[in-house]
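task queued by scheduler; priority normal; single chain, no ligands, no partner chains; default sampling; output format set to structure tokens
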Amino acid sequence: MKIFDTAREAMVDLDLHQVARIYTCGITPYDAAHMGHAAVYVTFDLLQRNLARHNVVSTCVRNVTDVDDDILRKARSIGANYLDLAAREMAKFDRDMAGLGLSRPHAEPRATSAIPEILTMVGDLMDGGFAYEVDGWVYFEVAKAPNFGKVSHLPRDMMLELAAERGGNPGDLRKRDPLDFVLWQPSLPDEPAWESRFGPGRPGWHIECSALAMRELGPVVDIHGGGSDLIFPHHECEAAQTEAITGGEFVKHWMHVGMVCLDGVKMSKSLGNLVFVGDLLEHSTGEEIRLAILSHHYRSTWDWSDAVLASAEDRVRRWRDSGPGKGAFDEVSEALDNDLDTPTAIAAIERAVAEGYGVIDTVKLLGIDLEVS
């Protein structure tokens, strides 16, 4: 099986033996899951299903970022406790993902569960000379990471631009370098705080995933990924700080999913241009929504529209009507082994249906069950 490795910028063969340690960045639960989220988690669900076909067992960890600037800001604005807000939104998220046919991850740990591990990592980075403290703020010093940039391959000016857009605050005058990033920060009076040797505070975003990945999966992850908007700064920073501690490679293969847009603009909570999974499930089936996502290659950026869903609904109806059978089974298997090439797989299924073959058994390879109970 081949996938495209972001860091290597090339297709690579997966050699995972019997077990694959997978970490995918989960949601910050301050609002409902939208189609951008769904595209990421459907992709990783399909990856695990295809690995299982090759007798590879997946140990998949999907974290929950239940303390960071966004969730605290939302909780403050609605007058709610941040953990209550997280619990409410996670219940919706789990229901929506189940509706799309996703299997539960091996673990779904919360950032707040890893404060001891986070503080240990921050302390180790300080003691190793990779981090520095200013007025209770602790920063990772990117100058001490000679391979910084190996995941994203971005020039410095682009890194600075994306850091400014994605919460990296390169204008912070406490930093030695604008690209240095927060490991620990003082909490505002109305924010949760944990005691530390640097004073009471809370973790930065990037250190949360490093701590959770190492706690749940060990120092090396086979496949790590998420949306392509996480390549920088999140995954770049994760790799730098983790490898500074372990001295070895953190991730064997980086895998990223393209953006889902609405009218040409990436769906994001900050812009409010969202199509929510829960809303779609009120009038469409999970199989139809899942197929709408899989009709695009996972690495592509594409536009959500009513027409995309209508096409998927038509396909589901015709595939179900085709009856039991393994039409195009080998072609679909081959396409999925080639970087989860779902458009090619779907085209093969369409040809089989047109030629009168049943495909209900074949489409199970896509995680779509069309058998009528």
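post-processing summary
- The CA atoms of residues 4 and 10 lie 6 Å apart.
- The chain is about 40% helix and 15% strand.
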